[in-house]
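User: Could you check the structure of this?
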Amino acid sequence: MSVLTRSGNWVRGLSGWRRAGFAFAAGTVSALGFAPLEFFPALLLGFAALLLLLDGADESHHRLRAAFVSGWSFGFGQFLIGLHWIGYAFLVDPSAHLWQMPFALVFLTAGLALFVGIAAALALYFWQDGAARLLIFAVFYAAGEWLRGHLFTGFPWNLPAYSWGASLPVMQSLSLLGAYGLSFLTILLGASLAEFCSPPKAWRMPVIMLVLFGVIGVGGAARLVSHPTQMVPGVALRIVQPDIPQTEKYTRSLMARNWGRLLDLSVAPATPGLGQPTHIVWPEAAPPFVLSRAPFALDEIALLTGQRRTLITGATRLAPDNSSAFNSLFIFSPGDAAPQVYDKFHLVPFGEYVPFANILNRIGITKLTEGQEGFATGDGPHTYQLRGAPAVTPLICYEIIFPGAVTSHQNGGGQRPGWFVNVTDDSWFGPWAGPYQHLLIARARAIEEALPVARAANTGISAVIDPYGRITAQLGIGKMGVIDARLPRSAPPSPYARYGDWMFLLLLFAGAASAFILGRK
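Assistant: Sure, the predicted structure tokens are below.
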């Protein structure tokens, strides 16, 4: 008996707290597959370990309960490690929010893990011998990931597809499959590796999957070679990264300094060879005050844009009657009497509003951003016309994480944009994993939609991304400065941009049908 077979039998034989503990450990290791480490074998081996645990649970007396506990423990470990950066948000104002940090981390990760636990239990309910169980596992796990991205406003962070961040050729498949479709195949590949702990005759499925991903990688590499980055003539971007810590952003004594930094960086000498900037992008909520209450700031913006420049900036906006506030983006164009305004439509729970606020506020739970009242919701996404540049769709911070929900064109209305502007303040995410994961998600949206992304982050990582996910310029975490760069040209609409998650649904149907046929055999 080989070492792999003995190891597989040992994992299958675990029970009780040992099974749950091993599932938790496998989940924590699997999180290493996501940014910033991007060690994708860790995630694949994690799926293989979970499948072996479900094989063992199938032999237990309370099989569905054992499967749920195994799946939940795996998900809890993965989310706890992969999303640990959420804790940094509670350190911005520790006197008000630090006490909430352990509860938020535990309850959020435990809640997200329910999707994995339920998927594992449902998979075991339909469990079959042989390769059929691999397909059943992948179908239910991937369906659970889709639900995680849609229910209760959705939180599709660290989808299995994002474990391929170290392999841009494999990520090219996002243009066809989308993040959920690539996640399905990634789960199936990882689960199939468990067959190497079985007799050699069961190795057919992992070999097929490895060959499939080899073909995906070769095809993606060919796609990158045959589509070099092309630039939009006449557009010179300047992305401003002021690097203002969140704890200093709204300090009254520092507001003048913060505002002056934005202006100084905007008018700094241009990078040789690129010419003067035509379009300047500031990060999310860049002005340290409400612009409508600061006439002097509007005058200085008018001077800035009067030199044939367009300014795109995130900023807090108050309704005319002061009844509500919005996390907004303003587009100031040369000569325009008033800016174009976009209001964020996908708000962050507990960051920008508090669900069930009447109840939770009574026990001291408030939103993490400034002010007591939550932001109002916009009606986006929208596409805006620009002078001297292609039409643009703004996405504020969190909005870029939702596959298939980033353009009005996808919802049957409006024109397809020529690029995305993603303004964000990742200082909330800490100095390590969170900003890198957020950047990778932005690259995934660029590939899916075949549209470039200009990303302005307060403390980094700011970047310009072409429609194939290549970073053409970037400024790292904790650095003050600007990115002067050309705007990449958009590519023709990808299949995913045209049809959305239909390929994912087709994969689920094909997986379920194949499992049924193999099970009958």
